[in-house]
Amino acid sequence: MNVMAIGHAELYIYPEKVAPQDRIVSPQRIDVASTQELLEVLTSMSAETSFSVLLVINECVVGNGKYFMTHETVTILHEFGACIGFLVKPLALLREARLEYQQRYREEQAAE
Questions:
Q1: Alpha carbons 57 and 61: distance in angstroms, whole number
Q2: What's the pTM value of the predicted model, to 2 decimals?
Q3: CB–CB of 26/14 below 8 Å?
Q4: Contact 72/91 with Cβ under 8 angstroms?
Q5: Close Cβ partners of 98 (under 8 Å, ≥ 6 residues apart)
Q6: Which residues does residue 60 pair with via DSSP β-bridges, in sequence order?
Q7: pLDDT: is 1 or 5 the higher one?
Q8: Cα(82)–Cα(94) distance, rounded to whole angstroms?
Q9: What is the DSSP letter of 18?
Q10: CB 51 within 8 A of CB 13
Q11: Which tens digit of pLDDT belongs to each residue from 49-87?
Q12: What is the Cα–Cα distance from 39 to 11, expressed in whole angstroms?
């Protein structure tokens, strides 16, 4: 992350499907400083995952949100402050990328 950046987003990721034999799973924290980094994190998250976002500027939390990711979309559970609407553009980009991937996959399957 850029040391000179005045703000960043802290994502806390909570896996939902934990098997009994798994160890205690604690949230994973990932800091992102750009939309591209945010998209990379959202893309790598598995479905059925809850995550929270804290938006931080000058070391002060200016917004927070709680979300739940499924195979098709991300459900907004709540958003406050600067988080209101924060994920609209990244989620639209993520949706487009998923649709493009599915279309390419179908075309490859039809070609075989």
A1: 7
A2: 0.71
A3: no
A4: no
A5: none
A6: 57
A7: 5
A8: 20
A9: -
A10: yes
A11: 889 999 999 989 999 999 998 877 788 999 999 999 888
A12: 12
